[in-house]
Structures are given as structure tokens and as C-alpha cells.
Give the backbone structure.
Amino acid sequence: MPRVIIKMLMDYNKTNTFNQLRGKQLFETIGQSLYEAYAVDTVLISSISEECEGANILSSCFQGEIGEGYYFPLTEVPEAQIVESEEPLVVPSAFDKRYPSYSRQHTESAETFIGIPLFARNHQLVGVLSCVFKRTFHSVDALLEYCKTFSGYLGYEVGYEALLVRQSQLQWQLEEGQRVAKVGSWSWNLREQYFEWSKEVYRIYDIKDESLLPTLSLLSALIHPEDREWVLDTLHRSIESDAVNYNLVHRVQLWDGSIKYLRKRAEVIRDRQGQAVEMRGTVHDVTDVYQISAKLNKASRQLTTTFNSVEEGIWEFDLERRELATSAKFWHLLGREKPKDGDDLESWLSCLVEEDRDEGVDYFDRFIQLQHASVFQFEFRLKPSSRIALDGNECWLTVKGSIVARDEFGKPTKVAGIQRDITHTVEAKRQLDRAQVVFDNTSECILITDRNNKIISVNRAFEEITGYREKELLGLSPSVLSSGIHDAKYYQYLWHNLNRYGHWKGEVWNRRKNGEIYPEEISINVIRDDNDEIVNFVAVFRDISHWKKAEEQLTFFAYKDPLTSLVNRRSFVQRVKKHIASIDDKRAQTFSLLFIDMDDFKSLNDLYGHDFGDKVLVHIASSLKQVFPVADDICRYGGDEFCVLLPETTSGAARVWGQKVVDRVAEAFVLDDIEVNTTVSIGISTYPESGETHSDLLKNADYAMYNMKGQGRNGICQYDSALQSDYIEKLKMRDRLKKAISDELLTVYYQPVVDARTGQISRFEALIRWHDEVEGHISPAEFIPVAERYGLIRPLGTFVLHQACRDLKQLHQAGFSDVTMSINRSVKEFIGCNGLPPIWEIIESYGLPVKSIVVEITESTASSESSDIQSLLASFKQKGIEIALDDFGTGYSSLSSVVELRPNIIKIDRSFIEDIEKQDNRTLVSLIIDLSHKLGIQVVAEGVETRKQLDILQEMNCHYVQGFFFSPAVPFTSCFSILKGQKLEGSVS
């Protein structure tokens, strides 16, 4: 049988055996098993003490023989390291040299040591399994794996044995403590009517047979006959009611006739319904104390009565003998017992704080020698070790006395007096001082009047806030502060609350001494004496002027735009909601919204800065306020967008209002010596035909505004059914386009760009194509604007880039390594693209040279974007990516865009090429080509469809041509045949 199977059977048998064993039998079996399996010379199973200071050997096995258990400290032993790290420890060799004392203590000699921590069920370290070898042991991993199979059982049992040992120790300590104190414990299960007593109870009742079960009848029989009735009555009444406390001293008569005095205390345990379920208590043998106390009480009852009737401790000091005689109360005040050695003076002085003691002794000596005063009085503090006040503070006492005896020469011989606890007096004075400090330094103003409402005190804060000094107000009524704003009913309500409830809180406008009126938050309380008579009125208030101002500002910022002071978006939306909610008849009542957006506002910010742009926005807001009668109906919706609510206004009337805005905003104005010309695009939505919720109305007005921008800006667009239908169609197209991009249902076609001189293909332009399952072929002119508007342009551009790189890689691998690709990218793809890999990293990831990709940017959009785009394009060129300016000639400032963007390639728009035979177009194209040659820029003519157009462009020395004359955009598979032929139908010969 293979060794692996044998070992598995051994492990199974071993685990099954260990699982059936417990305690010492398990420990001894494991020790012998380790000796038989691995010849372990010494096996120690130890539990760790709670303080981790020592270990108790629960089992020891020396070469298979069971040894005795013992304790050893965790110092200079390997078990200490295991306890600290809670990890196994292996000392492979030279163990004697590393731990010389260990071998002397546990084994004769040792070479190898292996220790394994043992854990209880709560994963707490409880013990260590130590294996010691006299020889060098090499099968460490096998031994650790072997121990792993039973270490869990072993840890649980070691933890359980430790708990049993601890339980036994605690049981012994409890019984020993009860024996020494002569206090026994007992419990009585009231439901099942059985008693349990501790051993000390048996000793107290002198019951020799501890197997005798305690019962109520046994308890009753042991109570002295004269005490039995009231003791049992108290017992039963305490069970029936919480009002009766079972705490008494009574006599018991033992079997031998002797009498004992026992003190019994007990508590009753009740269930949730209040029913008594158990009684637990103690029995204390107080026979000795009771008998001694009785004798002493009989001898000193009168003196004790006298001393205990006063709170002071009485003392007498004999000056000649230096002896101090005291009452019991004297030492009770010190928090200690009367000294038994008779040295009361030194014991008393040791209780005093050293500083106070030295001062007191010196003062007492001067009192005796000089006798300037008839009474000696001294205050002092007690050391914390003697007594601490209940509140944790230091204790203060006072000693007061006088000379009560003199010798024949008149020299004092005895001084007597009292000692009194003045802690509360000192603390009361401190609290009074602290209260005065708080009163004078608190930031709240405090005014106190007498029962007749006449001012008797004010604090500093009051003087600072009101301007009045306290001496100016004493004896006056608080009405001297009245502002005159509140009427008589206000103060009648105030006094009504004071008389009925004893307090009032609210806001009052008062007047300072300089005449300034200010708001204050005030709380007035009535102070009454023990007879419920009014003593004082206390007013606490604070100046809340700054709160009021802050509240006004917060209210303003909550509802207003801080720049223009118009209503903000949040407030405007709430206003529209309320207006909708107030409409009863949707057919009869209508209103409109104007969504206003400034045209080309970004260029103002880029050109003159954002501060200037803010001034322009303020001017537009002012213009809107002049157009519309209700300022709260005008909102700054965000950025350069405004909204206007037109109540009871139809769509036709709203268009009239919108035209007023267009005309007013179009008026030129001057800011910072700069003449500004602005226009706006306005979208109109009308309730209910444009929507019945605020969100629909705002969304549709916004869409109408954007539609106006698409139509050329500076105008008004009404959201109607046609626009809504177009809007819905674009949303549907957006959703289908999004799915097409994610599912890669789009394709990329390629149109060749040909060298006009040689007829050779220089590059291909990658053009996206989409064949939709619903509408069939959709032109890029339709879906690319949708992608730009709804945030899909970036994933769309990324898809084209990756596809073009993959296809170009195949062309290069086929031997056409000189061919490059032109890829159209929207400027919007580069705005906010933080975190996305740059274009050049994507190109390089396909193993392509960076210069093999040309990025085409539309000239009009590149010019209209910020300088950040220009710097981005510059970084492309720096990396080696060529930039082509597409649709050149259609922008607002074509020549300036060439200077600013510095493209590598200019693509002349097809609108110029299709009419190139006309003289004006021919002249313009010729100028563009000549200018490009001088600037070192390559020129591509788009839309070449005839031989005549090609001839003219060749005469003008145009670099490259592109169009249907050579080839339309074709699938990638056709690119191979085009390149292999290298001469297309209609190409230059």
C-alpha cells in the first residue's frame, strides 16, 4: 500500500481517536503518540497564565513515560517567544547553547526544539505544545503537519483545563474568605422550593453533616423561639413586597442549646411580571461583636449619646503630657479609625496636608505663648490618603478651641475644643466665587431684578452690549431699555407666561444707551424661595444682530444668485412647481417659459477673462429686469443661461416677449472701455402643450433653445409637436447608436487620398458607416451631431481609432508600409478627457509609428473652441502626429485659423472644388494653394469628381486630391485590391 494512503489512514485514525478523548487522557495520549510517531524525547503540554508570566505543565512525557506537572516562569525560555508572537517556533540545532537553563529545568540535554501555540475556541492563546529532541531533528514540516491535525482539539481542552483550574481557585478563595469573615451565602428558589447553602452556613449553624439539605422548616427550627415569629414574618413580607427590606439581626438556638447572633441580608429576584422567583442572601455570625458592643454600649450610652448628638468632634489636649484625647466623631471626620497605640496627636497631624500642618502648629504655639486671643481657630486640608469628599474634591476641616485649665502660675495646661467638617462651606464659597467669575465674564448679558422688578445687578457683558453702567440702572425698571417696537399685548403675554410657568423665552428689540435699536434673544426665569415666594427675576440675553444679518445673507444665497441677484435655479424650479400646482383648469390656464442662452459667451471669457464675463452677465441680468415687470420671475439658470416665467402667457405672446429680449440684448454696450456685442438664442415651452411638469417644460425649452443654436443662433424657437417629434427621434437614434457602439455594429470605410502628380495612393481617410436594423443606412451627417450632443462622440471616435489602427497594421504587414490613415476626430472628444490614454499611446499600442496617423479636425469647430484645444493640438504635433484642418474655408476666419493652429495639412472644402471652373472659386483655391506652399503646408482638395477638376488642380500644383473621380469610400477588404492595382479608373497616367 502506498505511503500516502498509509499516512492518510493514520491521520484519520488518530483524529478519530483524539476527538473521543478529554483532559489528562488526551494529553497523555498525544505525548505518547508523538514519541511513537517521531521519537520526541520530551513532550510538554502547558497552559499559559492570564498575565502571560508563567506556564503550568498540564502533561509531560519523557521518552514515552508520563511525568508530573509543575509551574515555570516565562523567562529565558522559548515558550515566551511563542506567547509573544503567537506563531510556531523552531530551533533546529544548538538548543542547549541558546537556552542553557531550559535543559536543566525540563530535560537532560536538547538539540532541537519545536513549539506550537494552542488556541481556545475564541482564538485566544491558552497554551503551548513543546517538543524537545536530544538529537538533530530534520522532519520539522512533517511533525508540524502531524500536530496540525489535533492542535485544535488540544487547544480547546487546554483552555477548558485552565478554566477548571481557575474555577477551583476562585471556589477555594470564596470559601476561605467566607470562613475568615464568618459570612455564608444562600439562595432560595421560590418556584421549586429548594435551598442552597455555602459551606460556611453549615459551620455557622454548627451542622456537621453537610449532606443535610437545607429547608425552610430547618431554618425555622434554628431561629430562637422568641425571634422566630417576627423573623419569618419579615421574610415573607419581603417576598411579597419590595417595600420590605430583609436586613436584620436575630438569635439562633443551636442543637447544643447555645445562642448565636446572626445578621441576615437578602434580596428578592423577580420576573418581568413582578413575581418573586428567587431569594439570595448572606448570613454573618456577629455573636462576638454583638456581645462586646452590648457591654460597651451599656457602660458608655450616656457619653455616646452626648457625643453623637453633635456634628463636631470633641478634643482635649494636655500641654504638659502632650496627649490628645478625642471623641469617636473626631476621627470619623478624618476618615479613619482612632489609633490603637494611643499616639493620637501624631496620627492627627499625619492626616493634614504638610503645608497646612506646619502653618497650624506654628499658629498654635504662638497662641499658647502670646495669648493675644482667647479662642484658637485654624482651617486645614486633609491628605487624599485620609479622606476624599464625595465629589472627589479635597476635604476641609476647622479646629476651634480655648484654654480650659491653667497651673498655679497661670500658665495654660489644657486646651479643649471641637473639630468640624467645613468642606461644604468651603466648596459653597468657591462655587460662589466661581459663579461671580462666570457672572462677570460670561458672554451672555445677565440682568437680575428684585421681586418688584427693580434692577439690582448686571454683568460686564450687559454693560458692553447696552452701553449702560450698573450704577446707572440700580433701582430702575428694565423698561428703560424698551425700544417702543413691541405693543402692550406683547408684554402682557410675556408676564402671563412668567406668572403661570415661571419662565419665558423669545426675541425682543431693545435700545442701547446711544439710541441704537438691536434684536436680542432673551430668556427670563422666576426665582422663588422655599415658601414659593418670588425673590428675583433673572434675564439672560444675547445680541443677535449678527445672526439676523447672517440669516438675511443665508436667505439671500438660498434663493438668489449672488452675481446677478436674480432668482437662482432651485428657487425658480420651486416657483414653477407652485405655479403648476395652483392651476385648476389645464385647458383654460396656460403659461410659458423662456430659456435664454448667450451666443458665443465662451469666447468673451477666453478673450477678456472671467471677471469681464461676469460683468457681461450682470449687464444681461439688468437688461432682463428692464424687459420683464416681475424680477422674481427671472432666473439665472446657470453659467450664461437664464430662464423667465411668463404667467398667463400663450406661446404667441411668449414669442413677442422673446423678441423683446433678442432686440434688447443685441444693443451694443461698453464695459471697461470695450464695446460688447452680444446675441442670445431663446427656446420657448408652453404649458400644457409643451409639458405638464416643471422638468418637462424646462427640458423642452432647453431643447428648443439648442435647436435655435443649430439654426444659426440669435433667434427664437418654439417647442412644438414637430420639434417634439424630432427630439424624440433623436433620442431614439441616441439609444440605438449607443447600442451600436457597445455591440460594435458600426463599420469603417476608407477613401483613398491620391498624390495629384503621381497618381499613387498616399493615405486613406477612415469614414464611419452605420447600417441600422430599423432605418437602414444612416448618414454620418445625421448621427454624428447626435453623438456630439449626447456624449457619445468620444466612444465613437475611440471605436474608429482602434479599428483604423487594426486595419492599418494589416496593410503594413502586407507590405504597404508607406500608407497612412486620416482619422476624423471631434474637438469635443478632447474636452474633459482626463484619465483616458492619449491618442499616441493607442497608436503605439498597435506597433504603428505615430506619424502613420493623421488627425483631421474641422476648421470651424477648432477655431471656436478655447486655446486649450490649440495647445492640445500642438502637443499632438510635438509627438509626431500630423494635424489636418478639414472643411477649410467654411470657418469664420480661415486665415487666422491657419496662423493659430499651424496645421500640417489643409483640406479645401468640396464646396469650392465643385465650382472650381468658375473664375472666383478658381482664384480663391489658387490663393489657398499658393499660401500653403509658402507656409510649408500640404493641400488636399476634397470632392474631385471630374477630369476637368483634376486638370485645374494639377495646374495649380495641388499636392493631393480626393473624391469619387478616383474612388468612393470602400470596405477595408477593397483597399488591398486598390493598392495592388495602384492605378484606379480615372487616375493620372
Remarks:
- DSSP finds 34 helices and 38 strands in the chain.
